[in-house]
Amino acid sequence: PRIVVLASGNGSNFEAIVKAQREGKLRAEILMLIVNKECFAIERAKRLGISYRKLSKDWKEKLFELLEKLNPDLVVLAGFMKILPPNIVNKWKIVNIHPSLLPAFKGKDAIKQAYEYGVKVTGITIHYVDEGVDTGPIIFQHAINIDGMSLEKVEEEIHKIEHKYYPIIIDKILND
Ligand code: GRF
Question: What does the record give as the active site (predicted)?
């Protein structure tokens, strides 16, 4: 199976996916990283030797054309900060990872939202993407206890479990 990864930021999940693939833990071909702006994920793609494309204006049309050309089995969102249009959502199988236990704390800065709310347990959600923001059928969740942790520590722990589970779940979706 063949995947493409979409990102807008740091790209640590993208890198975790590439590394898992190279360690044989993710059975998939990573066709391309697609970003919608200048971001550190590009730097990671260069270092890792993965081809990338940066879309800017007309990104919706360009992304549709690119996906048609690449024809991936799965589109993986990894910190992609744009809402995908219906024609893309309805045509491809797409997954997203969100750093909270949905449906709590949708949207931006979810780790901080949860932390500031004072929750004692938070976690990550991997879900299929529909036309909403952080909605769509849940595939996987993992919870962690954050009682007494600093925000920095919570962020670190959340990213750790993201990097651990996202590749595993993508592999399951593609190969089970
Ligand atoms: C992750 O926390 C992910 O859950 C959210 O955006 C962040 C992306 O981080 N959707 P990175 O760019 O993979 O480092």
Answer: 98
> Catalytic residue at 98?
yes
pLDDT at 124: 99
Distance CA 135, CA 114 (A): 17
Question: Number of structural domains, the chain?
Answer: 1
How many whole angstroms from 52 Cα to the centroid of ligand 1?
A: 18
In sequence order, what E strands does the chain have? 2-7, 29-35, 52-54, 74-77, 94-98, 121-128, 138-145
In which band, very low, low, confident or very high, does the pLDDT at 151 lie, cut at 50, 70 and 90? very high
ipTM of this complex > 0.95? yes
Q: Which pTM does this prediction carry?
A: 0.97
Give the residue whose CA is nearest to atom 5 of ligand 1. Answer: 79
Q: Is 82 annotated as a binding residue?
A: yes
Please work out whether the CB of residue 11 comes within 6 Å of at least one atom of ligand 1. Answer: yes
Q: What percent of the chain has pLDDT over 90?
A: 100
